[in-house]
Design a protein that fits this description.
- With 97 residues, this protein is an all-alpha fold.
- The chain has five helices and no strands.
- The chain has helices at 3-31, 37-40, 50-58, 62-68, 72-96.
- Helix 1 runs antiparallel to helix 5 (72-96) and helix 3 (50-58) packs antiparallel against helix 4 (62-68).
Length: 97
């Protein structure tokens, strides 16, 4: 394999991983496959309110999202990085074709 083939394979792998992460996140956001302790007890963890914050972000209600969980800032930054990297990879793959 040449260096260019390795780079192309790595780019495709990154986009695939990004897609899987987004799908997995949407699955947990909407289908809630198991019970969370904080839903049924007065137990709170670092991610309490994150599902509500993600739903608020989807509805573009940033203040409410921040009030639900301040960790949403990190999630938004990571999502922006993934989006920018995916756009860059798609443009590079289209230019190589």
């Amino acid at each position: 394999m040449t260096r260019n083939e390795y780079i192309k394979t790595f780019r495709i792998t990154r986009v695939t991983v990004y897609f899987i992460v987004v799908c997995w996140g949407m699955f947990f956001l909407y289908f809630k496959p198991f019970k969370y302790l904080c839903d049924y007890q007065s137990y709170s963890c670092q991610l309490c309110g994150m599902r509500a914050a993600l739903k608020d972000i989807i509805h573009l209600d940033f203040v409410s999202a921040y009030n639900n969980n301040r960790g949403i800032i990190a999630v938004v930054i990571i999502a922006i990085i993934i989006l920018v990297d995916s756009i860059y990879i798609i443009k590079k793959l289209n230019n190589e074709s």
